[in-house]
Write a structure and sequence with these properties.
It comes from Agrococcus sediminis. One of its GO terms (biological process) is response to arsenic-containing substance. Keywords: Arsenical resistance. This is Arsenate reductase ArsC. By secondary structure, the protein is α/β, with parallel strands linked by helices. The chain folds into two domains: about 60 residues, Corynebacterium glutamicum thioredoxin-dependent arsenate reductase, N-terminal domain (Helicase, Ruva Protein, domain 3); about 130 residues, Rossmann fold (3-Layer(aba) Sandwich), CATH 3.40.50.2300. It has eight helices and four strands. A four-stranded parallel sheet has the order 2-1-3-4. The longest helix has 22 residues. The chain is globular. The N and C termini lie far apart (about 60 Å).
């Protein structure tokens, strides 16, 4: 029995429907550009994905972040707008996910953080998901994704973790380097200690913004 007989959309149909929805949310962008970014995002994630069950949905989330960044462009941040922060790491499966989640959770809307990687892992480390859940900051909708030029260009602040920023910096962008142990392969107690260090670092950063 075909997907159509089951009443299921093909991945391409899901992506096209998602692109049409995103076009309504971004009327100032050309629909053809939006569809291209959606399919490009899907292809980018698919290159390293072993499990593809939810790939179209993840690609649409990835595309939505990229479109928002594209709108922000290189312009100056308006007064009162959240500070755009990009947290970069090697695999985006641990410390960068923690940092971005805490930046969003603890900033009371002052910061809008994303995380990305040079070489994204297949999924966020389960120990990381578990210890963040314990602290009331779930990562249930988080997934490793590559750093892209459009998202990087839109960031006001770039926080690198154990890597160098892969793109040319834009005027007035600030780059910070935060070093933490890689939680991969560590025990839950060790990952908890890393989590607590990341949270303290984020809180210190946010306090300095006041």
């Amino acid at each position: 029995m075909t997907r159509e007989q089951h009443g299921l959309d093909s991945p391409d149909e899901t992506l096209r429907r998602g692109a049409a929805h995103l076009a309504k949310l971004h009327p100032e962008l050309e629909p053809t550009l939006i569809e291209r970014i959606v399919f490009e995002s899907h292809a980018t994630l698919a290159r390293g994905a072993r499990i593809r069950t939810h790939l179209p949905a993840l690609a649409l989330k990835f595309a939505a972040d990229r479109l928002k960044a594209l709108e922000a462009g290189e312009g100056r941040r308006e007064d009162g707008a959240p500070l755009r922060v990009l947290v970069e790491s090697i695999r985006n499966d641990g410390i960068s996910q923690m940092a971005a989640a805490y930046l969003n959770a603890l900033s009371d809307g002052r910061v809008e953080a994303l995380s990305a990687a040079l070489n994204p892992a297949d999924e966020v480390l389960r120990t990381v998901v578990g210890v963040m859940e314990e602290d009331g900051v779930p990562l249930t909708e988080s997934y490793p994704k590559p750093v892209t030029d459009d998202v990087a260009r839109a960031a006001d602040v770039i926080i690198t973790m154990l890597i160098d920023h892969p793109f040319e910096l834009q005027p007035e962008q600030e780059v910070l380097s935060w070093d933490f142990d890689d939680p991969a392969g560590l025990s839950t107690d060790e990952v908890r200690r890393i989590r607590d260090r990341v949270r303290r670092q984020v809180q210190q950063y946010l306090d300095a913004l006041d």
